């Protein structure tokens, strides 16, 4: 398993912790520190077992209010960074 810690920018979450499969293509777990607790726990459950590329493409560019990013958008950046480390 590959573990990756990401510091998001421009959102309420302070950290995103990601566990990927050994080959870096499948999301095993995602955990957020800070942010909207209930929503981010739900997002974490929804992405488990899915491919990094599928989730990153789906959530990239998602915004929150007047912000140009969101926790989901930041997670997509974190997933791609973690995947890159695995390759």
Automatic annotation (TrEMBL):
Highest taxon above the source species: Bacteria
Principal EC category: oxidoreductase
GO BP: any one term: DNA biosynthetic process
Alphabetical UniProt keywords: DNA synthesis, Nucleotide-binding
Catalytic activity: a 2'-deoxyribonucleoside 5'-diphosphate + [thioredoxin]-disulfide + H2O = a ribonucleoside 5'-diphosphate + [thioredoxin]-dithiol
Entry's EC annotation: 1.17.4.1
Gene Ontology MF terms in the entry: nucleotide binding; ribonucleoside-diphosphate reductase activity, thioredoxin disulfide as acceptor
TSCPD domain location: 6-80
Any single Pfam family the record assigns to this protein: TSCPD
Family of the protein in this entry: Belongs to the ribonucleoside diphosphate reductase class-2 family.
Name of this protein: ribonucleoside-diphosphate reductase
Source organism of this protein record: Thermophilibacter immobilis
